[in-house]
Amino acid sequence: MNMASEKAVPAWLHYLDLACATLACGLWYATPQWWPLLVALAPWVIRLAVTRRLTRRTAFDLAMVLFLLTAAVAVWAAFDRDAAFARFWLMVGGVLLFYALVNAEPAGNLRVWFLALLGAAVASHFVLTNDWELYPAKVDLVARLGRALQPSLPPLPGPHPNPNVAGATMAMLLPFSGLAVVQSWRRIRAVPRSRSVGVWFALALGLASLLLVILGLFLTVSRSAWIAVAGALLLAGMWLAAGRLSGGSHTARGWIFGGCLALGMAAAARVVLVWPQALTTLLEALPGPSGTGNRAELVRDGVILVRDYPFTGLGLDGFMMAYSSYVKLIHVGHSPHGHNLYLDVAMEQGLPALLIVLAMSATLFTLSFRDQARRDGRRPSSELAAAVLCWLIILLNGLADDPLYNGHAMLFLLTPLAFAGPPETSWTAAARPIGAIALVVMIVIFRGPLTSQLYSNMGAVLQSQAELGVYSWPEWPIQDEVRRQVDLQQTMAAFERALALDPSNPTANRRLGMIELSRGDYQAALVHLEAAYAAEPWSQTTRQLLGEACIANGRLEEGRALWHGVSNREGQLAIRAWWYGHIGEKERAEWMQQAAASRP
């Protein structure tokens, strides 16, 4: 956008845009529905009338459109459309808040203070509303401190945020709280003492906000957020050190930083190879109980859902019952999400959405690198540096937890991207990293015929919509009962078409075998599950299903051997014995009971 068109935008419109987007996000936070969209888009209509432009251009315009498009597809694929639409409007709110922050760039430090005070508000809300009995801290010292504070705090109405969600939000906003302090200090040094009363107040307010965010983050005991902040600061320190070692050459700085990062990752990989339990031991040494085993299992098993729904995703906010029904093989909900940002995006919105997130990351880092390498005499943007630090915290936190994408904090997930500035080239610059990453993933992952994958994806969507769209425990005793009563002809036809194109398709074989077991077609189930197991022998789900098919067909020793390698933490093997008794197949029920009891 040129300077003339920039001047044509009234100053008040920057504030109105941010105010309307904030109000709409607040409404979506309370009750996600469509009509707050009118509030958020009102400034867009005014800007169109005044400047003949809807919004300022960014390097992420194409990516934002594609991300919302994948979200809309995920709404279509969802078995619970109401829940999916609720999540969809939060995503729309996040995109509109991104553009409101982009349009507020001419308003000076408004954006930084907006996010700094937002962090302070989240911290205050958490400290004032957290129920230390409902959400006891994982560290005894913090738990005792929280219980001591609670009686003296006024009771406030409204939702009580989960500590991990609050911690992740405060962690990502921490760089902007720090930047507000830095900017205030710079103004104090630049403004004469006679005029510095306002900037001294700004400095005090910034320091209070920063300390409040740090206190709130500490009280959440969100260890993944702590580690993410430490990791981002470590990377920032490495970047600064590389700058000192490079002798002023930005190219050399990039090579030094990249080399140090590669050496660090190689050293970590070497330690893990020599001592496989190193990472688990390190994480378990942190304060509080360890959940590393469950998180690793979620990631391993979640890959099955990515494979089943690679193009569309399983649907927004549909993870819990899809994971229980098609991976854990239990009849009630197990986990609310996959505790991994990348996995959750791929599972719920499909691999295209994950590629878009990775492409946006690459674009932000590229623009930041170019900003640092400026030779026109201008200082690198401190706002962009804070945004990169914020995005690093999000990405690092996403490796072990996912409180931002899967909760109401989705409203703030995209905010750091707003500080990247206008695109330096045409809109096709955003398409290049998306296309490059997509090509690599297609080559590495989709080695089989893509058409077969499309049919199996469609079959998985139809199955979850037909089954989970009606299933509810205890109205239905178990998902097998649903498979006996609902119409799955289209589902099975899609899987059979997938197998006609690629007989080794693991999704089609596993899902057909699952349906056939439920309906008593044990021989056909055995054939399909043997083919699925040949393609994915690492899958606990397929191993359990094949073991059941072997036992149901009288191959007891083979079935027992397979079940010996299956986790039975949720008692799912006993559920299978119950099912056969429920449908009156007493002999098979006894076989299942014996096989389950014989596990070491």
Quick recap of the structure?
It is built from 27 helices and no strands. The protein has helices at about 5, 10-30, 35-50, 60-75, 80-105, 110-130, 140-150, 165-190, 195-220, 225-245, 250-275, 280-285, 290-310, 320-330, 340-350, 350-370, 380-395, 430-445, 450-470, 480-485, 490-500, 505-520, 520-535, 540-550, 555-565, 570-580, 585-595.
Topology, element by element:
Elements: H1 3-7, H2 11-30, H3 36-51, H4 61-77, H5 81-103, H6 110-129, H7 140-149, H8 163-190, H9 197-220, H10 223-245, H11 250-274, H12 278-284, H13 292-308, H14 319-328, H15 341-349, H16 351-372, H17 382-397, H18 428-445, H19 450-468, H20 479-485, H21 489-501, H22 506-519, H23 522-535, H24 540-552, H25 556-564, H26 572-582, H27 586-597
Helix pairs in contact: 2-3, 2-5, 4-5, 4-16, 6-8, 6-9, 8-9, 8-10, 8-17, 10-11, 10-17, 13-14, 13-15, 15-16, 16-17, 16-18, 19-21, 20-22, 21-22, 22-23, 22-24, 23-24, 24-25, 26-27
Commentary on this structure:
The protein is an all-alpha fold. The protein has 2 domains: 440 residues, no CATH class; 150 residues, Serine Threonine Protein Phosphatase 5, Tetratricopeptide repeat, CATH 1.25.40.10. Helix content is 70%, strand content 0%. Helix 13 crosses helix 14. The longest helix has 28 residues. 45% of the residues are buried.
